[in-house]
Amino acid sequence: MAGKGTPSDGGDAGKLILRLMVAVLLAFHGASKLKQGVGWMAGPLQAHHLPPALGYGVYLAEVVAPILLLLGIFTRPAALVIAFEMVMALYVVVQGKAFQLQPQGGGLGAELQFLYLFSAIAIAFLGSGRYALSKGRGRWD
To answer: What is the pLDDT of residues 30-72, one digit of tens each?
Structure first.
């Protein structure tokens, strides 16, 4: 036997790594919004006939949700909030450039948004795991 752990040890460690990666990297975007505000979002939102106040939801998705992921509480709803924000970013900001290849590096125009979107969806399906304050036992974790 390779170790004394249970078969779920690797899965729970993987859930932790995924949660931390999304939370920490997205929190940098949240910190930027806290510092510079979200006023710049009014124009793109209005161009899509959406209320500018919707821009304040970014604080929920980029500040509150990452904190919840870090702690491992309300993990699934937090991940769904992030996924929704990425769908909105694709619709409002990235628009038709999502599948355009970038001249440098060859990545997609929305590569980062897709990475956050599908990572958040994975977290929503997987839950927090046992390396969380909730220990992955709650309905929402």
So the answer is: 999 999 999 999 999 999 999 999 999 999 999 999 999 999 9
- The CA distances from residue 56 to 20, 41, 45, 107, 131, in Å, are 24, 9, 11, 29, 31
85: DSSP letter: H
> Which among 23, 48, 51, 25 is positioned nearest to 38, based on CA atoms?
51
Structure-token pair, residue 65: 């949700």
3-state secondary structure of 62: helix
* pLDDT computed for residue 105 by the predictor: 82
Q: Which of the 8 DSSP states describes residue 102?
A: P
Neighbours of 28 (CB within 10 A): 10
Structure tokens given for 117: 């979107």
At residue 95, the pLDDT reads 86
pLDDT at residue 96, rounded to an integer = 83
Q: Which residue, among 120, 88, 90, has the nearest Cα to 22 in the 3D structure?
A: 120
User: Distance (Å, rounded) from C-alpha 76 to C-alpha 123?
Assistant: 7
Does residue 129 contact residue 12 with C-beta atoms inside 8 Å? yes
Mean model confidence pLDDT for the chain: 90
